[in-house]
Amino acid sequence: MRRRRSIVMVALFSALTLLAAACGGGEEGGGSAGGGGGASDCTWVVGTMGALSGDAATIGQPIFAGIEYGVKVANEDFDLGCELVLEEEDSQGLPDKAPQLAQSLVQNEETVGIVGPYFSGETEVAGEIFNEAGVPMLTPSATNPTLSENGWDTFFRLVGTDAQQAQEAADFLTDVRGLKTVAIMHDNSEYGKPLAEGVAAALGDAVTGELVAINPEETDFSAQISQVKQTGADGVFFGGYQAEFTEIIKQGTDAGFDVQYVSGDGSKAPELADDPSAQGAV
């Protein structure tokens, strides 16, 4: 029964998650609230897991809002036969929290699918749990290319991979911004490091020096900034998330390294746009 329902939900939530992303989660509500399409005597649980708190919540919360909106639309506008109920688990985006939360979601017999996990690291460690349970997972944002190589029958991705993003980033840095040399930094995560390596490969000889890793658990990146500053690069690409990217820009500018700073989709958060010190960053 779960398998048949899950096949239906894969198609439905592929469409609804894309709709929610396009709408940006602009409407509140949905979630576990009842639908407007009439009373139902059964429920189907849609699980979601990601960074709902902590430093990475600036990324996770907008994703969650879009998923809430998707559930709301499904309940109100589709004749599903059962009411959808959203069950969320807060991993804070941390891989070490993901397995236990994934087990909790699949143990519910009413769970028909997972929209998530949000980050590549937590997806890597939770994917086999969902696969063994036969529960489809549709990640709206995990972009590590190797996730597709795990042989999971229930894994679906709603975005392009870092391999695709890396080439676009390299083209932007050189063709659009006109940079001749670029220093590459990353946060050593399952998302940030492969993205940075992909950008470096696409840039080729335009990369200056070695790829420089930071520890996201620290807040002082002065040593790493000094290292990339010494290369004389025209710009910096950072593979990682918004909180660390903002700090790199602040500390780099304070150190007199006033160049073009660019990052990937993991840094796409309102907090970056609202920070005066990050003006001009992309």
Layout: helices, strands, pairs:
Layout (H helix, E strand, L loop, with lengths): L1 H22 L19 E8 L6 H21 L5 E8 L7 H9 L4 E5 L4 H14 L3 E3 L15 E3 L4 H15 L5 E5 L5 H12 L8 E2 L8 H8 L5 E5 L2 H13 L5 E4 L6 H5 L8
Parallel strand pairs: 1-2, 1-3, 4-5, 6-7, 6-8, 8-9
Helix pairs in contact: 1-2, 3-4, 5-6
Can you describe this structure?
The protein is of the alpha/beta class and 282 residues long. It has two domains: 2-157, Rossmann fold; 162-271, Rossmann fold. Helices cover 42% and strands 15% of the residues. It has helices spanning 2-23, 57-77, 98-106, 120-133, 162-176, 192-203, 222-229, 242-254, 270-274; strands at residues 43-50, 83-90, 111-115, 137-139, 155-157, 182-186, 212-213, 235-239, 260-263. The strands form three sheets. The chain has a four-stranded parallel beta sheet with strand order 7-6-8-9. Strands 2-1-3 form a three-stranded parallel beta sheet. Strands 4-5 form a two-stranded parallel sheet. α3 runs parallel beside α4 and α5 (162-176) packs across α6 (192-203).
